[in-house]
Amino acid sequence: MTSIQIDIKDGLSSSVAIKGPCRVATTANITLSGEQTIDGVAVVTDDRVLVKDQTTGSENGIYIADTGAWRRSKDFNKTKDIKTGTMVNVVSGSTGAGWWEVTTTGDITVGTTSIVFARAVLATSQMIDEDDMASNSDTKVPTQQSVKAYVDDGPSTSALQATMRDRIDAAPYVASVAALKALDTTKDTTAFLTVAGRKFRLDWTSGDLSSQITAADPRYIASDASPTGSAGAWVYAGSVETGQFFQPSGANVHYLADRVMMGSAVNNKASAVSSQPDWLTTYQIGTGRSFGFIEFAQSAVLNNSNANAANAFVAGAQTSGFAGTGNSIGVVTVGVNNNTSFSTNTYGLYSEAYRASGVSGGAYGFEIDTVNYASLAATNPFAQATGQTVGIQVAAGGGLSAVGQFASSVGINFWNNNAVFDKGISFGFTAINGTNGTDGNTGEAIAMATGHAITYYYGNNTKSWTLKANTTVNGDYVFSTAGTGNVNVPRLTADQIKFPATQVPSSDANTLDDYEEGTWTPTITATSGTFTSTSATGSYTKIGRLVSIRVSITITTVGTASGGVVFTLPFTANATGGWGMAGRENASTGKMLQSLILGSATTSNAFYYDNTSAIAAGANLIISGTYWV
């Protein structure tokens, strides 16, 4: 028999005598495309199909089914792949199961020569002794007693078919776990299992493997001859052809095995089961997750309890030996969100750190350390130094063309993912060059260009404060406070400081707690009698507790008024007062005026400087001064 090579995509490829088994054989002319039902079998992608009944005989052969156009199998697509007598076994089908052989004679050119297949052996047979002839009506044999025996095409298993396995020098392909279990392990020690489009290689391993069978480890399958695994089991040896794991997820790895597990990750059974015995999956499910990250990973590395295996994975890159300029990168990770049908996220890098209860050490989700053995290359927002040493660089654009790109949302984003940070950003007291935090010197903790603002929000897209520096060298704002006190800065309106309408008094003698400008209309009365007609205007400026006022009073008709001219104040005077103000009669006499404000007073009383009455028809009194509130 010719030697047999195994093609990783299509199975057996170079045996002329016997081809790899087919799942089903055609019974009539078919369309060589799409998944379809043939001879009672639902043919799916990657099934091998013996096509033998095409109207155009040159189309006959072995094909690999697909959702689109079918392709010829690699072991049946060249002239040297077949000859008269080449055999192929069909493992299922209502009428076509069994062995078929090529009966076309002469040179055969695939795709040109009309290829004819015929059954190689009877599907079932048994020997009928001459004494049985009279009673077996199904045989339809003649009654000659000289004939010793006939072949009956009946339902029982034939000796010829039962011994065919002895003559096949190739690992069998089976289409179900049940068929795998039924194999005779005295003849077959390697098998290929095809299930739901996936192909696996399994090796028969002798010995007591009952513990693995009892634990339902999917990598071990018991045989019908040893259902407990005490005499051995079929052991998973890797996937072939598809490279797919969790096929509905569409993952794809072009390698002999679906996934690569290293270190303690080998305890993961690499099956589509959430609960796995590896320590990381066990820990993650124990913290409340419904699955572990390894379940959906194509490769995993876990360390073990050996201190020499503390680091699960190390990657390094150096530039030594470069023949020119360039970059050297230890690890490159890329996330691409290109699913336009569903709302998905992608992460170029994701990291978690857990600090378990009872431990004394810390946990760091991500640490970046820089080591600069060269001189300091100072950098600033306007000039990035060529030799700068940067802990974390956050950039947008990927170095690609700006055409078609939009602004990225946020450079660094702090968010609550069911827990909070005690502080957002913390600078160690000796972490910044220029100060140790207590020496009175200054180090630049944050350096940003003028025009870059700090904005406070108090609601969704609702801004409360925006702080920025003006674009001139002297445009800085400096806020300082003594000791550990707080500095509360009122909001600015059109470049002005605005105080609340109702004063918030402060007991601090050095604190300005109010400022107000305004006018009021004083009410004019006399210490005795009443005026017939007067008018008055007033204006004031209040700074903290100090009120400065200006009053203009016009007496049109005196009436019965006499004594002092009394006018109301804009604010009640402080209880500790007495204050004197000055003025002038500005219409006729030109005499100086005096006006007194007593403690807790709401009015002031004006006389001439010599305490005589300033009441006169046509008089205009102008008074100004200050008092406390």
Give the SSE map.
Elements: E1 6-7, E2 11-12, E3 24-25, E4 36-38, E5 41-43, E6 48-51, E7 61-64, E8 71-72, E9 87-90, E10 98-102, E11 117-119, E12 127-129, E13 149-151, H1 159-162, E14 173-174, H2 177-182, E15 190-195, E16 198-206, H3 210-214, E17 220-221, E18 232-240, E19 260-263, H4 279-286, E20 299-302, E21 454-459, E22 462-467, E23 492-493, E24 496-497, E25 515-520, E26 524-528, E27 533-543, E28 546-557, E29 562-568, E30 578-585, E31 592-598, E32 603-608, E33 620-628
Parallel strand pairs: 3-6, 14-15, 19-20
Antiparallel strand pairs: 1-2, 4-5, 6-7, 7-8, 9-10, 10-11, 12-13, 15-16, 16-18, 17-18, 21-22, 23-24, 25-27, 26-29, 27-28, 28-33, 29-32, 30-31, 30-33, 31-32
Number of strands: 33
Q: Oligomerization state of this entry?
A: single chain
Q: Beta-strand percentage?
A: 25-35%
- Please give the radius of gyration in angstroms: 49 Å
What structural category characterises the helix and strand content?
mainly beta
Helix content: under 10%
How would a textbook summarize the main sheet?
9 strands, antiparallel
Given the structure, what is the number of helices?
Answer: 4
Unreliable segments of 5+ consecutive residues: 10-14, 122-141, 143-163, 241-257, 478-487
Give the rounded overall mean pLDDT: 83
Essential attributes:
26% strand, 9-stranded antiparallel beta sheet, mainly beta, 5-stranded mixed beta sheet, 4 helices, elongated, 629 residues
Write structural notes for this entry.
With 629 residues, this protein is mainly β. It has 4 helices and 33 strands. Among the domains are: 128 residues, no CATH class; 68 residues, no CATH class; 44 residues, no CATH class; 64 residues, no CATH class; 113 residues, Adenovirus Type 5 Fiber Protein (Receptor Binding Domain) (Sandwich). The strands form 10 sheets. Strands 25-27-28-33-30-31-32-29-26 form a 9-stranded antiparallel sheet, with no helix packed on it. A 5-stranded mixed sheet has the order 14-15-16-18-17. The termini are far apart. The relative contact order is 0.04. About 12% of the residues have low confidence.
